[in-house]
Amino acid sequence: TARRWALDICELRKPWIKSLYKTDKLEPLGEAREILKFARAQARKQAANLEHPIICIDVIEEGIVSGPRAGLWKEANAFQGLLFSDTCKSLLHVFFSQRATSKVPGATDLGLMPRKIRKVAILGGGLMGSGIATAMILSNYPVLLKEVNEKFLNAGIDRIKANLQSRVRKGKMTEERYEKALSLLTGTLGYEKFKEVDLVIEAVIENVKLKQQIFADLEKYCPSHCILATNTSTIDLNLIGEKTKSQDRIVGAHFFSPAHVMPLLEIVRTQHTSAQVVVDLLDVGKRIKKTPIVVGNCTGFAVNRMFFPYTQSALLFVDYGMDVYKIDRACTKFGMPMG
Questions:
Q1: 250: which DSSP letter?
Q2: Are 132 and 179 found together in one domain?
Q3: Per the database record, which ranges form the 3-hydroxyacyl-CoA dehydrogenase C-terminal domain (predicted)?
Q4: Residue 51 falls inside a structural domain
């Protein structure tokens, strides 16, 4: 069709529409400038330290004010300038780094195929547990949510419902999809149903003795192939699995709050964790639309390890008597949304 149209134009059977010079969709200059002004304010609000969105808007303005050729010249020059900026280099680095996360020496290069995870159990229905459960059922994984008593279990299920309802309100999910996701969730107070799960994620409070007890129980009740994962952000995984004989299937699956929204997932492997378990979790991470990064079992793993100096410097300023709110504003303004 496109070739036919081009020939028709060539043979003067159809008019040649010079789309570059079309102005019928443009607002009058005054209104256009107001729209651009609003767009600039939005761009600054979303990313205060990035200049390229503003430059894009400047280029559009040049095309509207001085005509399309002037706009194209400005675009070519601006592009050339941005190409050699630190921001451009960093964004390219991020792009390729995200793709490199799926290549893990000693795991993904062994020709292993990920095993099928048919059912997931989550221990703890608090903020993290309910967030992880939400992420799982949104990706069609049947989930068994365990809590210590009826009250905590109902609270956990309510949190998951609230997470899903928020998506319905925002138009990201239909009522039908909401019902289907919720039907994948089962609450339990005991370990009886754990004999049919392929992956357990423990998300209880950061208490070593409690976690050790849980992992000893899991070893008893889960099938021998089941992956035993912990969502800890601070505790040594070898310590958590100390009272078990299943060191090869103990792994960290550290989500970030809110777990159903934040895209990062740290997969923490110890010197004992099998390559098969790492491959399996990478596959799960991809299926629940996370960016999984495989890290070593060291203090703070990767994210908190980077976060420590940031927190320390903020606390140092507090020790020097600086206003806490000023420090918080500086962090937020710099682009750290949590302040």
A1: E
A2: yes
A3: 300-339
A4: yes
Give the tokens for residue 150: 């009826």
Long-range contacts of 253-258 (CB under 8 A, 24+ apart): 253/132, 253/201, 253/229, 253/281, 254/301, 254/303, 255/128, 255/131, 255/132, 255/135, 255/231, 255/290, 256/303, 257/127, 257/128, 257/131, 258/127, 258/131, 258/163
Q: CA-to-CA distance for 53 and 90, rounded, in angstroms? A: 15
Q: Which of 52, 93, 225, 254 is catalytic?
A: 254
Residue 186, φ and ψ in degrees, nearest 5:
-130, 130
Structure-block tokens of residue 238:
């070898």
- Backbone φ and ψ for 338, nearest 5 degrees, come out as -80, -10
What range does the domain containing 249 cover?
120-298
Residue 110 lies in a domain: no
Beta strands in the chain (DSSP E): 120-123, 143-146, 185-188, 199-202, 227-230, 250-255, 264-269, 291-296
pTM of the model: 0.79
pLDDT at 74 > cutoff 90: yes
| Tokens found for residue 295 | 């890290």
C-alpha torsion 8→11→13→14, nearest 10: 60
Whether residue 157 sits in one domain with residue 230: yes
Reported as a pLDDT band with limits 50, 70 and 90, residue 18 is confident
At which residue do the structure tokens 């934040």 appear? 262
Q: Which residues contact 11 (CB under 8 A, 6 or more apart)?
A: none
254 annotated active-site = yes
pLDDT tens for residues 181-208? 999 999 999 999 999 999 999 999 999 9
Is 282 found in the same domain as 235? yes
